[in-house]
Amino acid sequence: MTVIVTGAGGAGCGQAIAARFARDGAPVIVADIAEAGGHRTVDLITRDGGRAAFCGADVRDEGQIRELIAFGERTFGGVTVMVNNASAPFRPGEPLEHWADTVQTDLLGAMFGTRHAIDAMRRAGGGAIVNIASISALWHGRRTSGGAPAFDVAKAGVIRLTTTLAGLAGTDGIRVNCLAPGWIATDGPRQYWESLTPAQRVERGVPSKLLKTSDVAGAVVRLAADRSLAGRVLVWWSEDEPRLVQWGDRGYAEFVDLPMPL
Prior knowledge:
Layout: E1 2-6, H1 13-23, E2 28-32, H2 35-47, E3 52-56, H3 62-76, E4 79-84, H4 99-124, E5 127-132, H5 149-164, H6 168-172, E6 174-181, H7 187-194, H8 198-203, H9 213-225, E7 233-236, E8 243-244
Parallel strand pairs: 1-2, 1-4, 2-3, 4-5, 5-6, 6-7
Antiparallel strand pairs: 7-8
C-alpha cells in the first residue's frame, strides 16, 4: 500500500496524516509546493522508522498531479490511498480576494487528485481516496460574522465530489470518503482561540475546544481503512464526537414558512 498525502509539508494536518500512515506501516509520498517543509516531514517519518519520499507538486496543475501519481508508483509501487489535503491559506479578513487561488487549490486540486488516483487505483486493483472538507461548507448562513466565500464554495464542492463517486466502490473497488472537521489546533486557529476568553468564544461562535491534528489523522486513517464506507462524509465538530452524515440526506433539517404564500 502506497499513500499519497498532499499538503503534507507544513506542521499541520498533512504532516500528522502522513506520519500516522507511516507509523501504521505504509510507505508515504509527501507532496507539497514547499520543498523544505516536505523534506522535514520525510525526515520526521524516517527518524521514527517509517518509509517516505518527497515529491514537489502544485495541486493546481493537473500535469503535476499526474506526475505525482507516477512518482508514487515508481517509488513504492501501486498507489492505493490518496489524501487530498492541500489547501490554500485561509483568509477570512479578505472575503473578496484570492478566490481563484482558493478554488483552484481546494476544489480543482482535489478533483485532479481524485481523477488521477482513480486511474492508479484501477491499475492497483482498488484503493481509497479521502478528501478534506470543512464544517464551514455545511452551514446555510452564519449566526456570527466570519467565513471566506471561496473556501466554503470549494469545500462544499469537495463534499459533493465525494458523495457522487460512491458508486466506484462497487464498480472498481475504490472508496471515496470525506472528512469535514471543525476548528483544528493549527497555528492560526490556535492563536486566535487562545486570545479569547471563554465568554468571548461563546459570543463569537468559537468552540470551547479544538481538534488536535492527531484527531484528524486518526479519522483519515479510519476512512481509508473502513471497507464499509463509500461516498460518506464524516463530520467532526470540535466539541462533539465524529459522526457520519446520513446517506441520502437532503442537506437541511428544518424549514421555516414564508411570511406570506407565493
